[in-house]
Structure formats: C-alpha cells, structure tokens
Sequence to fold (1043 residues):
Amino acid sequence: MMRALAAAAVLALVLAATARAALPGSLVKQGEHLYGQYCVACHGMNGSGVVSGKEIGAGPNRDQTQQRIVAPALRGVGALAADFYLRTGYMPLQRLGLQPRRSRVLFSDRQIRALVAYVASLAPGPGIPHPHPERGSVSKGLHLFTDHCAGCHQVVAEGGYVTGAVPPPLGDATSTQIAEAVRIGPNVMPRFSPKAISNAQLDSIIRYVQYAKHPDDRGGWALGHIGPLPEGLVAWLIAGVVLVFTCMVIGKRLTSE
Amino acid sequence: MIRKLVRFLDQRTGDAPLLRKALRYLFPDHWSFLLGEVALYCFVILVATGTYLALFYTDSTKQITYHGPYLPLRGQRMSEAYHSVLDISTTVRAGLLIRQTHHWAADVFVVAILLHLMRVFFTGAYRKPRELTYLLGLSILGISLLEGYLGYSLADDLLSGMGLAIGYAVAISIPFVGANLGELIWHGRFPGTDAFFSRMYIAHVFIIPGIIGALLLGHLSLVALKHHTQFKTGPRATERKIVGVPTYPGQTPRSLGLFMITAGVLFLLGGLAQINPIWLWGPYHTYLSTNGAQPDWYLGWLIGALRLVPGFDLVIGRYTLVPNPFWGGALFPLVVFAFLGFWPAIERRFITHDYGYHNLLDRPRDAPLRTAIGLGVFTWVALIFVAGGLDRVQVTFDLSYTAAIWAFRVAIWIAPLVVGFGAYRVCIELQRGEQAERARKRAEQRAKALTELEVVD
Amino acid sequence: MSKAKDLLVSGLVLLVGRGRPRPPAEERVVPEAPARPGWELVALALLGLGALCAVMFPVTYGFNWPHPTQLMGASLGLAFVFIGAALVVTAKHLIVTEELEDDYPPDEHPEEQELLVQVVHESGDRLTRRRLFVLGLGGAFGALGVALVTPLASLGPVLRIAPMFESPWRRGRRLVDENDRPWKASDIEEKDFYTAFPEGADKEDLASAVVLVRLPKGRFDLPPALAHYPADGIVAYSKICTHAGCAISLYRAPMFQPDEEKPALVCPCHYSTFDPADGGTVLFGPAGRKLPMLPLTIDGKGYLRAAGNFDESVGPSWWGVRNRKPRNA
Fold:
C-alpha cells in the first residue's frame, strides 16, 4: 500500500517535471507556428530581418503590393521587445511604412506568450522587465520625465509631435510597457539604457506617468491637460457664445423690412 | 427719500442738470452695441481679481526648494515667483478661484474686444467724427495683448517661460536695434537678471493698467460726447436725430444685468474650468521644454506666423539684416494693426471719397468693398492662427504636419481672395434682392391703388 | 391666533398682492405701462436664488469641503448670474423701455472755433519774432523731453552688445550634468541624448546648456572646419534653438534606418529640425541658422571636456550674430 503510494508520488513528480520541461518547449513551438503565420513575411526566417539597401519602397502613399518589405531583425531583441510590441498592438503593423500605433491586440494572452517565448529563443536578449513604481517618487519622476521625455510626449504625457513621427499619449500604457519602451526606444524614440536611466529612476518615471493619467485637477474641468489651445476654444465657444446670447436677449435685433 | 438724496447732491455739487442729462442720455438699441460693455466688465473683473492676486505674488526669481503640499513638486528647485503662484493655487483659500477667474477674464476680455471691433469695422462706426475713438480702441486691443502675455508670464512656469524666450527672440530680431532693445528690456541677455521679473510685474500691475485705464477713459468719453452711432431702424433715426433707450430707467438694469452675468460667467469658469495649471507644467529653466507648448489664444496668430515662415535669415555679408522671427513675430502683427489703423483713411481716400459725418451705421451688405476686404484680411489672420495648432491636429486627427504647413503656406494667400470675392458678391446680391423687393412692393401698391380707383369710379 | 392669522394674511398680500397703489396721473415723464406681477415674482425668485448662492459662497469658503474651488466658483458665479438674470427680467418686463428721440450734438461749433482761433492769433500780436519764439519753445521742451527719457537707458546695457557673444565654455572646461556630476565619454550611448553644462557655470545662461549625442563613426558628414569637433563619435550642440530660443529637448533616434527618418535634434516650439551628423544644419522648420557646435575632447581619465568655444554664437539670431564667434565669458 505504502509502496504503491510512493510509486504514484514519484510518477506524479516525474510527470510534473517533464511537463514543466515540455511546457516551454511547446510554447516556443507554438510561437514558431504563429511566427510563421503572422511575422515571417516581414521579419524573415528565424527573425533574421529583411533589410535591402537601396530599394526601400515603404512609404505611406505607395501601394502596399508594390513595396519591398523591410523589417528589423529580431535576433537578440529578447522577450522585452516582443512582449512590448505584441501587447501594445504595435505589431502586426497596420500599414507598412507608417509609424507603429497602439491598436487592438489580435492575439490571446497565450498566443502572445508563445510568440514572446519564440522570439526570446532566437538569441539571448533582455527579458521582460518588472518595474516597481510604488518604490519610485512622483516628484523625482516629474523631474526626470521633464528632462528626458516631455519634449516629445508633453509634460503631462498627452502626446506630441516630432518631425516625422507622433510620440503617443501615454494614457493606456501599463507600467511594464513604459519600462519596455524606455529600454527599447521603439521607432524614433531614443533608447535609454540602465546606465542613462537606472531602474530606480525608471520606477519614479513610471510612477509619474501613472500619476499623469489622473493628475491633480483641482481647478476643475481639465480640458485635456494641453493648455491654451482648448482654453481658447472654451473662451470662444462657451463664454463667447453665452455672452453674445445674453446680449441678444437684452438688446434688439435688426428686423428685416 | 430719493428727493432728499437728490437735493443733498445738487446742493453740494450743483450737478442736477448734469445728472438729468446723464440719466436721459440715449443708448441706441441693438444687441451688438453691448459687446463693448462686455469687454469693459471683463476689465473691471481683471482689475479686481488682479489686485487680490498682486497681494500674494512675489516677483523674485531667487531659486528655492519646494516643501509645500503639492507632492509632485516636493524637493524641486523653483523661483520664488513660481512658488508664490503655486501657493495661491494650492494653499491660499479661494486663491485658485481668483487666479483662474483672472485668467479666464483675460481670455474673454480679448474675445469681447475682437467681437466689438468686428461690429465697429463692418458697420463703419469708425468714420468721422469717431476716428479718434476707433484709434483709442485699437490701442487698447494692442496693449491688452501685451498685458495678457506679461500676466501669464509672471508665473515663471515651463510654458510661459518658453513663451518669454520666444518674445525675446522676436525683440532681438528687429533689424539693427533688436539686440539693444532686448538687452534694455531684459537687463542683458535672456533670461536676464532678477530685475526683469520686477519690471514685468510693475508693468503688468501698474504701468499698463494705468495706460489701459486712461485709454478707456478717453474712449468712453468720446463715445459719450459724440453719442453712440445707430442703425437706421425706422424713419425717426437719422443722421441728426438719435433714437434710443435712456440711461435711467431703461439702460441701467440692462447694463447692470449684463455686468452681473459677465461676472457670473467668469467666476463660473474660474471655479469649474481649469486654466493654466502651472503645477502640472513645473517651473521654467532655459534648458527645459515640453511638446505642445502654446501661447494664450490671443497670441495664437503669432505662433502660427512663426511656424509658417520658411527657414531663412536675411543675411548680407556677415550682417543678419532680418532674422527669421521678425517676419512672423513683429512685422506680421505690425501689418495687421497698420491695416486696422489706416483703414478709415484708406477707405475715405480711395474707396468711398466720403469725408462727411456719419452717425448712421451701415449694414455689412451696404458697404460691399469694406465687407469683402475686411473678411479677406480676417481670413488671412484666421488661417495663420489655425496654422499655429497644426501639430495638435496631427496628434489628434493624424494629418501630416509637414504637409499641412505647406498647404497653409499657399492657402493663406488664396483663401482671403476667395472669401473676399465671395463676400463681395453676397453683399451685392443681398442689396439687389432688397431693391427687387422694394420695386415689387411699389408695383403692388400701384396696382392696388389703380384697382381701388376703378372700384371707386 | 388672529394676530398670527393677520400676519400671515398681510405677508401673503405683500408677496402676491399688487403692492403700493399708483400715484395719480399727472404730467408724466416716464410713460405708463401695465403691471406684470408674474414677472415680478420671477425677478424676486431670481434675486432670492442669487442671495442664496451669495450666502453659500462664504460658507463654501469657510468649510473644508472637497472640491473647494468648484464649490466656491459655482456659488459665487451663480450668485452673479441669478442677480444678473433678475436685472435682465426687470429691464425687459418690469420697467418701461422707452424709445426716445433726441438730437445728436452739433457736428462742430464754428463760432467758438472762430473765437478760439482769434484769441490765439491776437495773443501773439506783441511778438515780433513769432516763429523763432515758437521754435525756441519747441526746441527747449524737446530737449527737456529727451533729457527726461535718458535714465531709461539704465534699464539695460543698451549700447554694449558684447554680452550677446559671451559664453562660459572654454578649452578644457569639463562637461557636467544637472547635478554637477562630470560626464564620462563612456556614459554617452548611441540612440540617446544627454544635457550637459560647463562645470561651475550658471546653468540658466543661454550659452551653457548643450545636448550630447553619439553617432556611429561612419554616419558623419561634417564640413572640414568641424571635422575635428566630435570626440569618439560624441558631438555637442547648443541646446538653445537658433530660431526663437526654446530648449531643444527632442531627439529623433531611429531604430530601423531604412524605414525611419534619420537622427535629428528637434525643437518643440516651431519644430526646427537640426542634423547632428553634419554640424547642425537645418533640415526642416523656420530656423535660419545652423545649431552652434561645441568641439569636444576626452581627457586622460575619460571625462568629456570642451576643446574650445562654440563655432558660432548661440541663441536666436540678431543683427550681429554672425559677426563674431563667441568669446570666453
């Protein structure tokens, strides 16, 4: 009786061990299948990338069927990049030649994990970060954000413009995605390594960005946190309209003959 | 009791006759004549709220470390000026309400002046004998733009600090004397010493309000002396006879009511709609900037011009004759104000050849060329104004900024011609329509008279 | 009991009744018009609401309720609006809006004008050298006016433009960050941008702040005069835009060259775009002058030092900006 139990326990342990060992493997295999379906056309076999020196072809107004595909290599980008691009919906690209945009994520969570595992398996690369914004300081975060980020993303993270690209507003960004983007530098965003922005500083920046999603709006209706542009619209379309209407109530109008 | 009061006043000041004249002074009745009053009431609110704010503001650029209640700025270095505005916004009870009301009042003040100016322009109210009144009003507009700019720059926040740098660039871009002027105003090169903020403060709370007050006094006195213009609303209203509502009892509750409602709108905005949340921007340093920085709306035409002018300095040898910001930042507003200022003379001399007195107003359709040219110039300025916000258009609507800039560089010259021409035709058509209508009525009356005669016979 | 009843009845009469009787009709100045008790009630109600809101303002001011600015603004604003509405109702329905006729004041007064002209002319009859006198008066007052204006020059160094060329950089000065920590060349990585200041200088000085970027060696396209400015691929440019003086805080750093725009330093005010690979030329935007470049060198301990001053004056352009190179402050 005891021997049967012991044997069953050993069997269970062995199965569990092999299952655990098999799981990453099968995840990577799933990822490879998905990669073959959705990614290989641009990113090439084994994530080698497609870079053709002269004939780029990509461009917003070019017919997509006539474009030569170009895409960066994925070897060595690690789980960090794969997780970022997939969870934000940046990839798959909506239109070739255009800046990747946050869009509806078509993959399930399991599919994403599979793809991430596959890309991570191509070559050693950085893993998914685990930031701790609760350890950061909002005040330091504001200072660092103004220094490194506000020029493109606007000081309250409402997004902005840089010649040739649109740094997005960060209202939908999760802490992990912020950490990932900072370390990757997607599209034309600079890449901030831990040497430039330490993990502790990154925690503060993330804490500030989370704060900026619902900042202190003690003055009332926030009007989008971008300043005088919507304020001017309010001055004309609310105050102006109300006051002109009041004048029209008080005074006479010109009647037609 | 009224009798006692009136007797008291007359015995001591002797101005019962003056009061009688004042109380029965006539205000022609049209809603658009109230727009100037709205501007006046905004100014009153500005002075009242501004005085309150001045009691709490510190005009010093000395750097201190913040230890106040707003956590995201704890431990940050900032000027005492920024700190004082932060205090007003977070610590002083009702401080934020008064501050926001003051800022909204400034924005709405210029809205009201502009609407008032458009009414005056398109009805020809600036004609003889009111040319001086008009010029005084234009001066108030011009100096109010500067006053507002200085006002929001006093906070020394990131957005307004960037705006001051641009103002400095425009000042020094004036050919030959620019750098000297810049050094004079800033006591050296930007950002200047502490002296600059003191100057800005005194200019904003004392010198310029005094100037505006004096200009306003002149403006209102002239209006009262020559009486207000009127539309031809009936046979009684002529160039010599004014038809209107007397000050008392008719106009007083109207004006007072308009004042109350204007104040109410401004305080409601001041409490409910956040404006210039300087705690979110952070303090200014010359080596910091943010995307999406804009001046207050009434300077939007200037940022549009600065962004539209193609990138070149006019250089001869090693002398930079005309640095780039001059065209958009200095010449452009000068041209617009020159147009507005000289327009009465231009119209008199080249278009109407009419040097007579006018107390009756035109409807816009009655002066097609004035309406067309006015709308054309307005379109020019309005499109340049819109160009100032094209980057946010790209961010929100995904329309290419660089392409839009090029499109606007062309559109600002073509659209005014189209709008002006269109306006001209509309005026002519409206006039012709009225002529036809009058002719039809006369014909009907004649026909009616004839049939009646036949019946009688 | 009946006293209370009386009080109630008289109160109701006051509120709902017609008020004081009219005075007998004499020679009236303000015309008669029928009473409108309904609108009276409306006006009174509005005044009551206005008073209520006005009373609420000091209450919201005094108590420590949440959203104080909104509560205070709403109460004060509504107080004004209600009272204003009551006045408008009064104007439109409760008082007579007369439409009267009057004369416009005369266009001019020829007789008085004549008199004034005559007085001025006759007053000057005693003078034999009238024009000279007037000239003398004008000249004296004019000179006095100019004299009174001169102290304004103390506001700034009006004639001395040398400060416009000054720069705290000089050969050998170390580059430090915002916390005065010196920059090492190894700190500067590609695809990132850094802000640096001269060690010991005022950071707010327009000529202080520089932006550092590192580009791959093969990417440079510098003119011969600037070819020795980079240090190990690191270049430094003035952070102050040559268009209108904003800080250049945007760095366009493409990750994947074939598909994206090349690296550029961009200003957020009017989007002047500068190329760090060729000495700071303007790629887009209204800047009329290239970005001033600071020559760099790396010292024995690996710290970044300036190898001289900027190749051009920093900041927005002005009349003499191209006349001289920056001097050492």
About this structure: Residues 110 and 240 of chain A are 54 Å apart (CA to CA). Residues 53-59 of chain A have pLDDT under 50 and may be disordered. Chain A touches chain B through 63 residues (CB under 8 Å).
